[in-house]
Amino acid sequence: MEHIDAKELSSEELNTLLREKLAESGEVMVEEPHSMHNIAAGFTGAGKIVINGSTGFYTGGFMEGPSITIKGNAGWYTGDNMQGGELLVEQNTGSNAGVYLLGGTMVIYGGTGSRVGYGMKGGIIIVCGDCGRWAGQMTLGGQLVLLGKAGKQIGESMYRGAIFVADPAAKENLGGNVILDEIHPDEAEELDRKFDRYGICAKASGLMAIRPNPSGRHQYTLFKPNLQPELAHRG
Length: 235
Prior knowledge:
The model has no long low-confidence stretch (mean pLDDT 94). Helix content is 12%, strand content 26%. By secondary structure, it is an alpha/beta fold. Strand 1 (2-5), helix 1 and strand 2 form a beta-alpha-beta unit.
């Protein structure tokens, strides 16, 4: 495996070197990433990248193909618009991880912030720790798996796909336009294979499924203002 010391490099310089090293050996270790933004953004093709430390915003954004392991934390928008490949975060991520995900696999072994999987259209995101509110908001496809505690308004306004949750309190934290359902046997089998592959100690049979409301109708509580224009003339 090739090694790159990124301590004195800009993100543009690092990404140029990464592409060169991946073409030569197929496997690269990045040392001293110092929470740099945009690492491996837009990368395509095969290869393995291991980042020995934490990263900043947009790590692996728009990528299609490589396998990236972050041996630390990752900033906001990790895996933004990811189209394929594998993105593994050994600790935590900031908000908006995996937004608009189109394909591939993202595993967050720690926790994540709000709006994980927002607008995702395909692929799978597994969060082993806790997550913030609006997980899976506006989901259009794919699978979002939440194995820790989940914040409020899970799946708000989702249209397709499925969100699988372990948190018993999830039924009190559902967003609008969703229902709570049982996980299907074929879904559980597929998830158990993923758990085995990525060393996740969980059983899919214990998960609940959140799905779009089959009626297709959004249900909202409308705000009805108590207008009292006569009060404006007082005094």
